[in-house]
Specification:
Layout (H helix, E strand, L loop, with lengths): L1 H17 L2 H22 L3 H21 L8 H9 L6 H23 L12 H38 E3 L5 E3 L2
Antiparallel strand pairs: 1-2
Length: 175
């Protein structure tokens, strides 16, 4: 949630720099509201993790839009994907990657049709495919990492539960 707040602050800054300040504030507020509700109502559950992943990628998309497709804003896709590893769950990583993939294809085609939306500075489906390849590679690596991290965390918790100190400070192995 704190990463989403940071992205919302970036949206406010970009809105102020590039003009559509109200749009940035409104969309960021809605996304933060949805994420905040998910956090409050379902914290720790899969539903909350998925909402956070998608809302975070939509905030990245908002920042790309507000910057009128500035290439540097696309780095946030990879940064946010990396932050999703904190969940130690492959599903938010995949949800975030799918959300940004749909955004990129949709906004590129809408931009090509002449609508005032941005993915890149100018529509270019070839560049969208190149971006997608990088996202697929990072997502693939992160899916493997997330599965391993979850397994390691589960094994560590099981080991802590099996090995406990008794009342006198001695090791007590429980079966």
């Amino acid at each position: 949630l704190s990463m989403l707040v940071l992205q919302a602050l970036v949206a406010l800054l970009l809105g102020g720099l590039y003009g559509p300040w109200g749009t940035g504030m409104l969309v960021a507020g809605v996304l933060l509201g949805v994420a905040g509700c998910a956090y409050a109502l379902a914290s720790g559950r899969l539903a909350a993790r998925l909402v956070m992943a998608v809302a975070g990628m939509f905030l990245v998309a908002l920042n790309i839009q507000l910057s009128m497709g500035m290439p540097e804003m696309h780095f946030a896709v990879f940064v946010f994907l990396a932050f999703l590893l904190a969940y130690r769950d492959w599903r938010p990583v995949l949800a975030g990657a799918l959300a940004v993939a749909v955004h990129h294809v949709l906004f590129d085609r809408l931009q090509a049709a002449g609508l005032p939306v941005f993915c890149l500075r100018a529509p270019d489906f070839g560049q969208i495919v190149i971006h997608a390849v990088f996202v697929v590679v990072q997502t693939g690596v992160e899916l493997v990492m997330a599965v391993r991290m979850e397994r390691d965390a589960r094994e560590s918790a099981e080991l802590r539960a099996l090995c406990a100190l008794d009342a006198e400070g001695g090791l007590s192995l429980q079966a």
